């Protein structure tokens, strides 16, 4: 019968075990190092103020000397959650706008891996944030999680439009002043051009009251000479 030589397999088995352990150790250390580097990277977005306000209202602590925390109206909590969703809409738009640009720059080698890691981490954080907002909305009102981001999108669009209109109105006075100066400059140029055109065609004015060098009744020198010859 066929028999295995276990003594001859000891060395290959030890080699496989050592090699596998080395790869596992290296992989673990590499993942931990990458996780530490990713944690030390600067966040893509600043602190989420609207989320902090909502959580503060939701988990208010009792004031000094009182046993119960003050009751926050549900309308205030819903408004805070809606403002949180509006800020999430703004951040989602920024992520969608920057994703194509970051990917293109990364392929060209114009940016490092740190920037791409920051972007991917921000994208994952936003996915978790959206799920959290939907869960909170459903907890406050049934089926509100299905329409909260639709309402937040409308509010964000109106806010952007209002900011654009305010910017246009703020620049109206400066643009009006610039246009007045521009129109005055154009009028001056037109007047100067009209003056140059008409200056060559101006009529010569003869003053009839100015006495001539030779009076009308006095004969000229030429006529005197002719009379002398006769």
TrEMBL record:
Region Disordered, annotated ranges: 190-230
Compositionally biased spans, kind Polar residues: 207-221
Keywords: Membrane, Transmembrane, Transmembrane helix
Gene Ontology CC entries for this record: Sec62/Sec63 complex
The protein's name: Translocation protein sec66 protein
Keyword Cell cycle set for record: no
Stretches that traverse the bilayer: 6-26
Listed Pfam families: Sec66
This protein's record includes keyword Cytoplasm: no
Species whose genome carries this gene: Podospora aff. communis PSN243
Any one biological process term the GO annotation gives: post-translational protein targeting to membrane, translocation
InterPro entries (alphabetical): Sec66
């Amino acid at each position: 019968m066929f028999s295995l030589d276990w003594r001859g397999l000891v060395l290959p088995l030890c080699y496989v075990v050592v090699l596998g352990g080395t790869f596992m150790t290296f992989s673990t250390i590499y993942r931990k190092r990458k996780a530490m580097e990713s944690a030390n990277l600067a966040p893509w977005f600043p602190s989420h103020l609207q989320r902090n306000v909502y959580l503060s209202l939701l988990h208010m602590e009792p004031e000094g000397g009182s046993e119960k925390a003050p009751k926050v109206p549900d309308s205030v909590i819903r408004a805070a959650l809606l403002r949180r969703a509006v800020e999430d809409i703004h951040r989602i738009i920024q992520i969608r706008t920057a994703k194509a640009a970051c990917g293109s720059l990364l392929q060209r080698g114009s940016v490092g891996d740190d920037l791409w890691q920051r972007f991917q981490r921000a994208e994952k954080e936003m996915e978790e944030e959206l799920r959290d907002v939907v869960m909170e909305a459903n907890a406050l009102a049934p089926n509100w999680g299905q329409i909260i981001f639709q309402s937040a999108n409308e509010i964000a669009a109106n806010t952007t439009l209002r900011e654009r209109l305010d910017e246009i109105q703020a620049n109206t006075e400066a643009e009006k002043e610039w246009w007045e100066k521009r129109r005055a400059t154009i009028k001056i140029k037109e007047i100067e051009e009209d003056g140059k055109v008409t200056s060559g065609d101006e009529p010569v004015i003869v003053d009839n009251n100015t006495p001539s060098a030779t009076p009308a009744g006095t004969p000229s020198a030429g006529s005197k000479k002719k009379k002398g010859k006769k």
